[in-house]
Amino acid sequence: YLHEPGNVLSASVLVAGTAVGAGILALPQALSPAGMVPAFVSITGSAVYSILTGLLVAEVCVNTLCELGSGSGVSIGSMAERTLGAAGSNLVRLTYLFLHYTLLVAYTSKAGSTISSLVGGDDSMIS
Predict the structure, then answer these.
(1) CA nearest neighbour of 22 among 13, 34, 12, 30
(2) What is the pLDDT along the chain (127 residues), one digit of tens a residue?
(3) Does the predicted TM-score (pTM) go above 0.70?
(4) CA atoms within 13 A on the CB side of 46
(5) Are 61 and 74 in contact (CB under 8 A)?
(6) Distances (CA, A) of 75 to 7, 47, 62
(7) Is residue 96 within 8 Å of residue 81, measured between CB atoms?
């Protein structure tokens, strides 16, 4: 099995799918008690922040790729090690581990709640 390099469309779809997580779909409903203007400002501010940090990560990724050569893979860990050193890289890896663990717990909890409501069970034990 040979790994084929991706194309721009595949990379764009991957980044867009990662950026639009489950949380962004719930933000309008969660922010609705605050009103239209504060909700709009919050979501727009979050979008701008996400775009800017994504561009910064992309810049570090390109610089790391140029430094390491096109034959080697670039990951968040390798970028962190290059820019933050070994201690910073370990902190980034632990942060990502914690992030994915909390996402797993949140999705599992919501899935349990949804399944419970579909089968007519009591939702009080899940939430």
Answers:
(1) 30
(2) 566 666 777 777 776 776 666 677 778 888 889 999 999 999 899 889 988 988 898 898 888 888 877 666 788 888 888 889 999 999 999 998 998 898 888 888 878 888 888 887 765 655 5
(3) no
(4) 13
(5) yes
(6) 18, 23, 11
(7) no
Residues 1, 29: Cα–Cα separation, whole Å: 45
The answer to whether the beta carbons of residues 43 and 28 sit under 8 Å apart is yes
* Three-state SS at 115: helix
pLDDT value at residue 4:
67
With tokens 């949804």, the residue in question is 114
CB neighbours of residue 80 within 10 Å = 22
What region, left, alpha or beta, does residue 20 occupy, with left being phi > 0 and alpha being psi -120 to 50 degrees?
beta
Question: At which residue do the structure tokens 């992309």 appear?
Answer: 58
Q: Take residue 81 and report the two structure tokens written for it.
A: 């090690």
Element (H, E) at 55: helix 36-68
pLDDT at position 3 is 60
Residues 6+ apart with CB under 8 A from 44: none
